[in-house]
């Protein structure tokens, strides 16, 4: 397959875990940890899927999602959102703002892998 | 026979005693134990600097030349003290409520904090006082010369000159040491006042001793002396009514206006009630000082008809071979001279530094004055240099006038000069209509007339005015003759000068005041001065808003010192019902602050500095209204309304603050849950993900396996630590914590915290002064160390300076000890300062900072339990935390 995933997340250990799971499944994984420059990174990497954390330094994942959906180039790009806050309010908000999928940490590896495959082939 | 060397030795011993007394008094005052240092008796004795060497030696000479007329010099102050003590009380009250630092400051402050007037009065005072200081130097050197002559050699002028230089230098040293030790907010000098009180006793005792010796030792008792007086020339002097009235008026006016008298009477006054005691005790002192003047003069004339009458107090005992008595008398004269010079130099240096140096310095650094540079250093240096300059001027006058003029003449010239302040002073205290222009013009006219009719002619023929000009009038214009202005011939020069200068001064002051409209600030100050007893705090000078409390604090720290400034701000914040160090900048507070600053740098300078920060809008329309339609009832009514309005707005502000705080807390409560969730789930995510990887995969590189296991392990520890913190905080908050109280050394706790903070390999350097850390505490050392470690770790994490540095400063204050942690980073923004001690209030979002944002919350709980407090200290440059802890004794006493 060789498709590209951009992982926007700031916890080093979680970055390592997701990168490991996805690259072993044949995905190319780029990572980025800062909220403010995330949009530039999307434009540069042109990924097939974005995994987006909610609590990022300098800029919230929700703001980035809004930007993605407002841009014609990325409005239909699949976005998998992750959050550790685990409140129902966040899930509603994410869905209304057009996240393709919303998952709460901690997740099971199989679930993540399945969601990524689903979203890219769909 | 007393040799010159012996005399010098006694002199030095006496000076050493004065140094010791002053030093002991300062030490005592530093310990806060003021006690008898500030009794009415010391106050009364300090007033005796009115009696200078001129009085001590000169009164006898005066009596020889003019009979009883010398009494006028004592009668003026006596009348003021007995009849006008209510005026003194008003002066003292104003001095205290407005934090007045000198007579120039008083005039400047009354007339709209005008610096021009401050400069004017300062110059007048310097010019008027210089001859007087010269006079003191002259009397000391002459008295030295008497002993030298007695010891055999006749002194040359050069020799006298050297003595004068040495005396001037010694006085400079003493005055700088005790007059400028600190830039104390209220400008009190305990050491100096105590020393001059001692000198007052010495000179009175000396003069009485000589008097007793003359009456009972030389003459045969009171009856014999009365007979001798009746036979002498002195009894034949007819008092001239005009001159008597003039001189009594002059000495009374000078008593009120002399810078040094203002210094001891108003600035150094610690209690208004002392004035009541002084009002009878000081005239009594003056009476005793004058009691034996005539007997000494009569006996002196009999024994030494060719001698210098100004020195009879000294030469009569010498002629009778009473060396001990002569020595005592010498010390009395020495005391009179030195105490006057010291206080005059302090008063003048305060005026010069506050009204001339500071305004110049301030205008040179207009934009940065309040924010950078140490103002205290500038002021103190300016004062020291001014003291030296004042004494140098005095010496130069002595040197160039050649020590020839009779003592009394110089004294009267000085008196007439400073008396020019009187119309502006009295007008300012009792007449609302007195205006700045009036005061300035009056002073200028008075000064010019005084200089023309008295001061310049006193230099003799060669200097500035030719003999012909004095005798015939300038350019031969008869009615401009300095000694007979407008053809008023036949008057005594002093009375003539006083008559014209005071008349023209007062007339100009009144006329210009009537025809000029005072500015708003002048009217406000006028109301505060004239009505000081009715409402000392109702008129205001500052409009609401504009100033940042932190900027004001930074400026105040530079002038008052950080301790005093922080205490002032904290007190005000507490009074307003808040906490911390930053009160609201209400007009009242700014007014209070300005007065505190005025105590150090004078009214005009303080006003200018505060104006720079508040943006200069000094008087609001509201305040102008208050001044414009002010009658007694309206004032009372507005004051009540004002108080109610302030009460209301204070309550409203407190409610608003409480509401804001509650809203924030509720948001925080939500955020707290969400934060806990986040902090717990994040490590759990890694643990779950990596354990699933390790569970599912059969073949995996050894290195990967090792790495993943380490991550799982580290994250498990992070979870545990978070749970520990939460538990710790919960226990502390519920007060269930058991503390291990023990007596401990603060130094060891800090030492332990620094070692445990894990700074190896960190860029952060720590600066400490271990000597100050030797403090015994009753505390829980583990818990205290935990607080310190947290503060050090925070500095390590968040200090963003290129060369991060943390200063740990320990200071004992009263029953507590303060430990300040100040770094050199960019500090914490003002809007966040109030929240940093709340849970999860980590200012950055990154988990890389390590903790969960519970550290400071835990610190606050711990310090609370230990009986202390922790606060953020604004205005220190970097982030600064102050931990205050009770000392071991104080804690044990509970």
Summarize the structure.
With 122 residues, chain A is α/β, with parallel strands linked by helices. Chain A is 43% helix and 20% strand.
Topology (SSEs and partners):
The complex is a heterodimer of chains A (122) and B (894).
Chain A: E1 4-8, H1 12-24, E2 28-32, H2 38-45, E3 49-53, H3 61-70, E4 79-83, H4 88-96, E5 101-104, H5 109-121
Parallel strand pairs in A: 1-2, 1-3, 3-4, 4-5
Chain B: H1 4-30, H2 40-47, H3 53-66, H4 71-83, H5 85-97, H6 103-110, H7 115-150, H8 157-179, H9 190-218, H10 222-231, H11 241-257, H12 259-267, H13 274-291, H14 293-303, H15 312-319, H16 323-364, H17 375-401, H18 407-418, H19 422-430, H20 436-455, H21 467-472, H22 493-515, H23 520-530, H24 549-560, H25 562-575, H26 587-601, H27 603-614, H28 621-628, H29 632-696, H30 702-734, E1 742-745, H31 746-756, E2 765-768, E3 776-779, H32 781-798, E4 805-813, E5 816-823, H33 830-833, H34 855-865, E6 869-872, E7 880-886, H35 888-893
Parallel strand pairs in B: 2-4
Antiparallel strand pairs in B: 1-3, 4-5, 5-7, 6-7
Helix pairs in contact in B: 1-9, 2-9, 2-13, 3-14, 3-16, 4-11, 4-13, 6-7, 7-8, 7-16, 7-17, 7-18, 7-20, 8-16, 8-17, 9-13, 9-14, 9-16, 10-14, 11-18, 11-22, 12-16, 14-15, 15-16, 16-17, 18-20, 20-22, 24-25, 26-27, 29-30, 30-34, 31-32, 32-34
